[in-house]
Amino acid sequence: MPQSKPPSDYEELIRTIHERYDHMSKSYQRIAVYLTQNPNDVAVHSVHAIAERCEVHASNVVRFAQALGYDGFKTLQGLFQKRLSTAAPGFEARVKALESELGARKDRSEGGFLRDLIVRDIASLQNLLVEVSEADLKKAVTLLEKAEVIYLLGQLRSSPVADLLRYILTMLGKRCVLLDPSGGLATHMAREIRKTDLLFAISFRFYATEVVNIVNEAASRKVPIVAISDSTLSPVAKAASVLLAVPEHEYTFSRSLAAPMCLAQALTVALAARLQRNSVNPRIPTVTEQ
Predict the structure, then answer these.
(1) Rounded to whole angstroms, how far apart are CA atoms 25 and 180?
(2) Is 152 left (phi over 0), alpha (psi -120 to 50) or beta?
(3) pTM for this one?
(4) Is 270 a residue whose pLDDT tops 80?
(5) 3-state SS record for the chain
(6) Digit-coded pLDDT (tens) for 5-51
(7) Is the peptide bond before 206 cis (omega within 30 degrees of 0)?
(8) Is the N or the C terminus of the chain less surrounded, counting Cβ atoms within 10 Å?
(9) Residues near 270 by Cβ (< 8 Å), separated by ≥ 6?
């Protein structure tokens, strides 16, 4: 990953990381993902703390900075520190503020675990307002509105988001096809997607191989793709017409779906407003309505 002249500002640094990501080693890729997902934390944490979260040795983080042309990690970190002066609070800062407001978990009881997860989910939901742009939301809703058929793709932990989208979009009168992996038919079904349709893919680390392959194959045929993923460096990012990135943060037990679910619902509510020409009080019908 040679770099003769180091990026001079944060924006240029992120562009450089994206351009070189595919050619990085696995350890460098882990560092790159952490840096792009947690810029506020990078600005304040030590190189050892960052290395621990990337599951690499501190020397790898230093060499990563040097490979980009910097004399060491501190110089690279300076770009993140400069950005921090005008940035919104990061995930950890939000968690600390919420713990102060709601009371930090001080025990290992059932209620303590519930409180801890709620605090982290609130922080994650707050981050959506910063991480997801209005322009991307509008473009995604426009693609959903124009699509003749919407193909939904999500496996493993992402499957509940795809199921929710299928239910709501169907109730809104959109033709949907869930690319269900059962029976090994998802890849074969995906070959029927046309340019007038839309592939809506949801994929988080660790990314399901079949999902990534379907997305790339659809993109090669110029099929419009909306993707919800955890990083702009996700393997589905480059193929997506619109990428809605929801950075994930470590949980004590598992990663929550609160933010992706909220984002999926926001898209469908916005779509309902357009289809019903009612931006004040759009409604999603239920199966029990006559």
Answers:
(1) 33
(2) beta
(3) 0.82
(4) yes
(5) CCCCCCCCCHHHHHHHHHHHHHHCCHHHHHHHHHHHHCHHHHHHCCHHHHHHHHCCCHHHHHHHHHHCCCCCHHHHHHHHHHHHCCCCCCHHHHHHHHHHHHCCCCCCCHHHHHHHHHHHHHHHHHHHHHHCCHHHHHHHHHHHHHCCEEEEEECHHHHHHHHHHHHHHHHCCCEEEECCCHHHCHHHHHCCCCCCCEEEEEECCCCCHHHHHHHHHHHHCCCCEEEEECCCCCCCCCCCCEEEECCCCCCCCCCCCHHHHHHHHHHHHHHHHHHCCCCCCCCCCCCCCC
(6) 899 999 999 999 999 999 999 999 999 999 998 888 898 899 999 99
(7) yes
(8) C
(9) 137, 141
Q: Name 191's Cβ contacts closer than 8 Å, sequence gap at least 6.
A: 217
Q: What tokens does 98 get?
A: 């919420």
